[in-house]
Design brief:
378 residues, alpha/beta, 8-stranded parallel barrel, two-stranded antiparallel sheet, 10 helices, globular
Amino acid sequence: MFKGACPFRKNADHEESESKSKHCRRDDRVLFSNDRWPSGDLTASHCCDSLPLAIDGMQSHAGLGSEEPYPHGVCKTLENRDMTHDKMTRRSALGAIAAGAAGTQLYMGTLGATLGSASEGTEMKLKGNIKQSVSRWCYGKIELDDLAKECAKMGLVGIDLLSPEEWPVVQKHGLVPTMGMPGGGSINDGLNDKANHAEARETLTKNVALAAKMKVPNIICFSGRRRDKSDEEAWETCTVFLKEAVKQAEDLGVTICMELLNSKVDHKDYHCDHTPWGVELCKRVDSPRFKLLYDIYHMQIMEGDVIRTIRDYHEYIGHYHTGGVPGRNEIDDTQELYYPAIMKAIVETGYDGYVAHEFVPKRDPLTSLAEAIQICDV
């Protein structure tokens, strides 16, 4: 299944030894040849003395002396319970613990019923405020046809990062190929270098036309690695390419999305590694058919402040990816992000695009996926 060279990492300059590399793959395309996957348990702290509780039936943590991790920055304090940071009565503490236990029972019951429905082959019922998708490469051991069947049962609307020959496979199950590839350039050799433009233009032109014909809404592109280029030089070079490319995209109704990736852990030297850099490029290209693929996992590593960033720059974001931090695994309470709050922030911006799960499951893949869908169904 994993054959051939990676179009995203072609002609990469590998400073690190390949013998020390760990590999994660998008289907048959190696993405992270220099990845270092964090290990160990999350040790996020609870917030002060307050008691994080379940919100809208989600996870609950009593917080009193517990060593259980709680997502950073989303602590909810109890109100009207005779509590302050300096004083907490025995009665209010016991009441909080009881409320927390009830919240946990409610959440686990709801999630258990959801996962049970998925395992029994019945369709999961979702609110649908977030149009959820999943990245194919994270489930590369499952045949695409089988994965599409399961995704449809779970209530997903599409599958991300598929090549043109794969688009019909998911479409026959009523799913959308939510992000097409290949597009403009690769992670290592992207649009910030004029030497890559001829090949990138040929590939992007061909696949934007195919995407329009096959009703694929988005095509991915990449900035490429810095290789000592200044931000200004990269902006100018990318803008020249994209100004021309968006003419076809506008005519055909396809959006070109440049992915934001972290250069700290996974993609050393990648240029489009901060949201403001990508936003400036969007402003220069000045087209509704050029947007950013905001990868929540990557941008949490580089900048944090995820919800504020989404609120400030949502008009420049055309697609989202999820993933647990650290490790890019499940998006549950084993990692530091609180995805229900993030999803609610996305909904509040009026976003009507797709949110694709792009985490590597450590447990049973389909069970983890079903859990992630429930977590993000706000």
